Backbone:
């Protein structure tokens, strides 16, 4: 589990907008005005250059994301909500933003031989987006050059440079999916998934599907409204009661969502809850609970849940969602790097802050920001929180540790270090997680194929007194 406060590279929810994000979007929007060196008519007046609105918005969003001002989901939702684009243009904008981010390292490699020195951010974003269209989408080269040179004239970069680069850019080593990750991160994926790593890395380039935990009434309601359950390549339509869904309207406009019959959650995230086993009637501590999605799933399974996080605003969102779902939980604000004054639970879930490296399909901007140092920083935080979780697990109780990351330092190595420091704990076999998984140290990694995220999950039993 990740959050903007402590989880390097992880995307914030789209609704979590800040004034800073809006300011950067507004500032970028002003770049559509003609530059002083824009083409002029015979009277010396600047002619307004009409850039394609979907492409212009895509590049503005990419500028914001690449500058670190915002995360892709939020920046795109915010931009589209103010742009009033037709559905087709909005779809193109979404595809260009996410596609460019998913392929960014490969696109950077393609552009590198054609650029000298440091390229200004706006020009770099434009060239990446254009190169994605040319090399990946297969848009005719003359159309790419024409569209993006026109866009460059609105203030995004030197038109002559854009023209020259886009005419010459070619794909490095074809379109090898391994090149869409930084080399060190591709190495982490290969270490985690072995022979399946190439398929996993290629799958990260696909659009992320919508997963919903549905009650029977929710499933019937969505089907009645014209939505459908779908099966992806090599992926079932549903894992337990978490289904892959294609909606014919926004989720919040569905009866299933309004009535509390549907909750967005990735099957791998649900697997963390299932790792606790039967929780009916048990006191469960949901540590680093964030927006309370797993707390809601635990409550639905009959647990007496206390969710702990250090950000009060997340509790407000969690309470509102619990009310929508007709569920209950206790929410406590505490810093889990220190021992809070809480009664130990016989079931404890620590879905710890992490790098989010297992969620690149839905949050591709992570690969642009994540560094090996960020992994080490996350591992230090996780070790502190695991030590706290040890004290909050009742004798004889179960502690489940999970992270939405595939790195060794945050997963198997974190558990190995924990067991060395806390010999009162022993690893246990995981119950059926309902998703494909591979062994990883004293735990397992969910296999990130078909839109399932990559989570490391371990189940640890505390010795009874």
Residues:
């Amino acid at each position: 589990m990740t959050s903007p406060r402590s989880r390097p590279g992880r995307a914030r929810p789209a609704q979590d907008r800040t004034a800073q994000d809006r300011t950067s979007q507004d500032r970028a929007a002003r770049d559509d005005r003609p530059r002083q060196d824009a083409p002029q008519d015979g009277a010396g007046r600047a002619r307004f250059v009409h850039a394609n609105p979907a492409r212009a918005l895509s590049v503005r969003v990419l500028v914001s994301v690449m500058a670190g001002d915002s995360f892709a989901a939020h920046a795109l939702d915010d931009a589209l909500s103010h742009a009033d684009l037709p559905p087709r243009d909005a779809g193109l904008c979404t595809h260009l933003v996410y596609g460019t981010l998913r392929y960014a390292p490969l696109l950077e490699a393609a552009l590198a031989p054609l650029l000298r020195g440091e390229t200004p951010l706006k020009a770099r974003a434009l060239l990446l987006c254009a190169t994605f269209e040319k090399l990946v989408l297969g848009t005719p080269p003359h159309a790419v050059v024409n569209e993006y040179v026109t866009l460059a004239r609105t203030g995004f970069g030197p038109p002559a440079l854009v023209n020259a680069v886009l005419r010459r850019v070619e794909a490095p080593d074809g379109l090898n999916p391994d090149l869409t990750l930084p080399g060190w991160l591709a190495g982490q994926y290969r270490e985690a998934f072995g022979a399946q790593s190439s398929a996993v890395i290629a799958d990260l380039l696909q659009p992320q599907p919508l997963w919903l935990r549905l009650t029977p009434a929710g499933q019937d309601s969505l089907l009645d409204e014209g939505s459908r359950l779908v099966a992806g390549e090599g992926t079932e339509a549903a894992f337990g009661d978490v289904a892959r869904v294609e909606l014919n309207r926004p989720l919040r406009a569905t009866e299933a969502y309004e009535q509390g019959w549907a909750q967005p959650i990735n099957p791998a995230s649900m697997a963390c809850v299932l790792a606790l086993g039967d929780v009916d009637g048990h006191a469960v501590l949901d540590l680093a609970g964030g927006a309370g999605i797993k707390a809601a799933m635990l409550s639905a399974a009959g647990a007496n849940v206390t969710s702990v996080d250090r950000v009060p605003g997340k509790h407000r969102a969690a309470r509102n969602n619990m009310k929508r779902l007709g569920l209950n939980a206790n929410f406590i604000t505490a810093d889990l790097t220190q021992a809070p004054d809480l009664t130990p639970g016989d079931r404890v879930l620590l879905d710890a802050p992490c790098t989010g490296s297992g969620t690149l399909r839905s949050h591709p901007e992570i690969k642009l920001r994540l560094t090996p140092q960020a992994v080490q920083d996350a591992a230090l935080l996780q070790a502190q929180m695991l030590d706290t979780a040890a004290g909050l697990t009742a004798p004889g109780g179960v502690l489940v540790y999970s992270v939405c990351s595939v790195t060794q330092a945050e997963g198997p190595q974190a558990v190995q270090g924990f067991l060395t420091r806390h010999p009162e704990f022993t690893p246990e076999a995981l119950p059926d997680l309902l998703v494909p998984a591979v062994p990883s140290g004293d735990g397992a990694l969910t296999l990130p194929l078909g839109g399932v995220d990559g989570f490391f999950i371990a189940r640890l039993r505390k010795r009874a007194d």
Remarks:
- The longest helix spans residues 87-111.
